Amino acid sequence: MSVTELKERHLAAIETVNDLKNRLKHKRHSLLDTDIAGYARSQGTTPVSFGATDLVCCRTLQGHTGKVYSLDWTSERNRIVSASQDGRLIVWNALTRQKIHAVRLPCAWVMTCAFSPTGQSVACGGLDSVCSILNLNSSTDKDGNLPVSRMLSGHKGYVSSCQYVPDEETHLITGSGDQTCVLWDVTTGLKTSVFGGEFQSGHTADVLSISINGSNSRMFASGSCDSTARLWDTRVASRAVRTFHGHEGDVNAVKFFPDGNRFGTGGDDGTCRLFDIRTGHQLQVYYQQHSDNDIPPVTSIAFSVSGRLLFAGYTNGDCYVWDTLLAKVVLDLGSLQDSHESRISCLGLSADGSALCTGSWDTNLKIWAFGGHRR
Asked: What confidence category does residue 144 fall into, taking pLDDT thresholds of 50, 70 and 90?
């Protein structure tokens, strides 16, 4: 068979695949007779209301000299860890603004950080393609830095995200620009499982975000530059359990819904979406039309404890609070007096749902406290 014939067959196969994708998309839409907002309106659901003191900026954490890229809360809600382009990892006392640790990292280009379940260790990773583990109880060196207690090496691309398996100090999952996710044994520093890569059901572009199911820690979701989110089972590393389509650009953020049966996504197309892991259906799209037709990408998302609120950070500095039932913006933190002056790069909710922390390219973190009600 000639090269020309092979090229023709390849093009024909691509057309066939694209046609099947379109037919599948239309079939999926035909099965969805409504979305969450439509059903909620039919039931007479009233939107969440916010008063002037219901969500206010109570503290600004200043100390980084570069863009803040990632943050995480401890389970007891009194500490926050943040990673910045200044090459430092800072552990903050969220109640007093005090810096508990300010660690200079081996690689300045850090992109992600996460506390272990007990809060005794921190994991971080970035352009060095390594996930470094820091024991916060270790003795500091003469410069006041904490030594790296373990380096998880094996990715062939940057480490974009990391998260400890809930209630397990010895296992964490990373996502990488090499198109894979990896489950690591922190004790040995070895890979336990690899998700994607050479397997056909894996991502076909950089993995940007991961989220482990709080109700079933064997399941986790990942978002990628291939415009899809995928669901994985750590017991079946060879293939994704399900692939979720809908976004028309990079999927920058994924986050499980509190009940574990759904997860949210945020993408470069300026939308947040809610998917059901049992049916594979898209349940809702969260999109705010802008008058100038400029659609800012979504960088990060989080759900309130009940799931009634969805917090979404955008590249233009907006931070919307969505009513997940009615798909309406009930508050924009970016419009408030104490808002960030640049892109919202990361955000996270405290374990008890009493406070939201946002990180920005303006080098600051802000803690927003719920006043009148918490949902």
From this structure: low
Both 23 and 121 in a single domain?
no
> Which residue has tokens 């993408």?
267
Nearest CA to 186 out of 233, 235, 240, 148 is that of: 148
Q: Return left, alpha or beta for 149; rule: phi > 0 is left, psi -120 to 50 is alpha, else beta.
A: alpha
Shared domain check, 54 and 8: no
- Residue 294 structure tokens: 């400029």
What does the alpha-carbon distance between residue 302 and residue 321 come to, in Å, rounded to a whole number?
Answer: 10
Q: In sequence order, what DSSP letters do the residues of 72-135 get, joined into one string?
A: EE-TTSSEEEEEETTSEEEEEETTT--EEEEEE-SSS-EEEEEE-TTSSEEEEEETTSEEEEEE
User: Domain of 14?
Assistant: 1-31
For 8-22, the three-class secondary structure string (H helix, E strand, C coil) is HHHHHHHHHHHHHHH
User: In terms of domains, do 11 and 87 share one?
Assistant: no
In a domain, 53, yes or no: yes
State pLDDT tens for residues 77-131.
899 999 999 999 999 999 999 999 999 987 889 999 999 999 999 999 999 999 9
Domain count, the chain: 2
Query: 135 and 19, same structural domain?
Result: no
Q: Which of 73, 120, 60, 67 is nearest to 305 (CA)?
A: 73
* Predicted confidence (pLDDT) at residue 52 exceeds the cutoff of 70: no
Task: Please write the tens of the pLDDT for every residue from 155-172.
Answer: 999 999 999 999 899 999
- Residues contacting residue 34 through CB under 8 Å, at least 6 positions apart: 42
User: Is residue 87 a part of any domain in this protein?
Assistant: yes
Q: Which two tokens stand for residue 31?
A: 């099965």
CATH number at residue 344: 2.130.10.10
Q: Give a yes or no: residue 37 inside a domain.
A: no
- The whole-angstrom separation of Cα 47 and Cα 61 is 32
Longest dimension (CA), the chain: 73
User: Is the pTM higher than 0.85?
Assistant: yes
pLDDT at residue number 150: 93
Mean of all residue pLDDT scores within the chain: 91
Residue 334 forms part of a structural domain: yes
